[in-house]
Amino acid sequence: MLTHPFVNFPFEPQLSYILAGISIYDREETLGEALWVYNPNKQDEREELIKKFIIPDFDYLTYRHRFLVFKMLEEVLQQSDFDFSKQFESDHDDPRILAWDETEIENPRGFFEDIYRLARDEWKDDLHKASLEDQSTW
């Protein structure tokens, strides 16, 4: 069983993990300021912020972890009725606060589709390597 890095708990990726790179809780003056120069609704700016902040946030994970995150995102994207705007909502019981909330993202599904496309390109070798393995042995 694949465990979280640094702890011995089963690794079960959640969709909320995808946006961790733009979580600004207690970092509004640093990360928030760096993110707010981007307009997440403009294609070129969204791609740049995904490449600079979201994809690199997964660098600490192994290729197997990234594969599971990618497959989880792929499965959710296949659900045509999935409400991606909920991922941008603030939850007062959860200290995760994103740089933009659900009212500021015009196309939440498109945001996640871009993450998927860019992660597929960035992690191409890792995804291929993991796909050749028997995931049941992890």
Sequence-ordered SSE layout with sheet pairings:
Elements: H1 28-35, H2 43-54, H3 63-77, H4 108-122, H5 124-131
Task: Walk me through this protein's architecture.
With 138 residues, this protein is an all-alpha fold. It has one domain (16-133). The chain is 42% helix and 0% strand. It is built from five helices and no strands. It has helices spanning 28-35, 43-54, 63-77, 108-122, 124-131. The model has no long low-confidence stretch (mean pLDDT 94).
In whole angstroms, how far apart are the ends? 5 Å
How many DSSP-defined strands?
Answer: 0
Principal-axes shape call:
globular
Q: Per DSSP, what share of the residues sits in E-state strands of 2 or more residues?
A: under 5%
Element string (H = helix, E = strand): HHHHH
**Share in helix:** 40-55%
Short description:
This protein has helices at 28-35, 43-54, 63-77, 108-122, 124-131. The chain has 138 residues and is mainly alpha-helical. It is globular and about 40 Å long.
Main features:
5 helices; mainly alpha; 138 residues
